[in-house]
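Deliverable D5.2: sample structural annotation.
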Amino acid sequence: MSNKLNILLVDDHEVVQAGFKMLLSSYEQFDRIDTANSGEEAIQLYRKLQPDIVVMDISMPGIGGLEAIRKIVKTSPDAMILVYSIHDSAVYTERALQAGARGFINKNSAANCLAEAILSVSAGNIFLDKVQPTVDLSVRNEKENTNPSTPVELLSPKEFDVFCLLAKGLNGHEISANMCLGYKTIANYSTRIKNKLNANTTVELTHIALASGVLKV
């Protein structure tokens, strides 16, 4: 019986996906490497293939990586999920851990860091690469932050997803299409987000996102 790991690699950029698949294929510890292009496809393939570990991007069209993690972990609490992302803010790291991820690495990390992270997470560890800021590991799997240090931490998981898109300048209809949710639902989220963050305009939301590290100039 093989002890090699089967991996599900999730990224909506085909070039990036192909590059990481080629990299991982060079390691003898890894066996089958399947790919998905979205959070929705990741959920379907996870149920079908039952991979040993999922390597998940979080900034993708549709439900996105964070929601995909939540849905996978909801039905498979022991799922091994490692986030790899361009984001290096503690906000994203903590959100990923809250969703149920077991590790977070930056895509700009050294090439061998991804393989190291996969092996570490598969062994039952929580892995954060050296690029990541210090985060509170106790937030993992918490449904909400009970001791928020910034206003953004007051947002629910879905509100945070909508907030990120609003802060990037997307309008309600664009977010509705991106997240596959109704326009009225997005409008309701937008109202709640502005109330929680004491903001009146999208410009103010963008300033808050910049101040909290959700966006970078």
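Annotation notes: The CA atoms of residues 8 and 34 lie 5 Å apart. The first strand starts at residue 5 and ends at 10.
The annotation will be released with the project's public dataset once the embargo ends.
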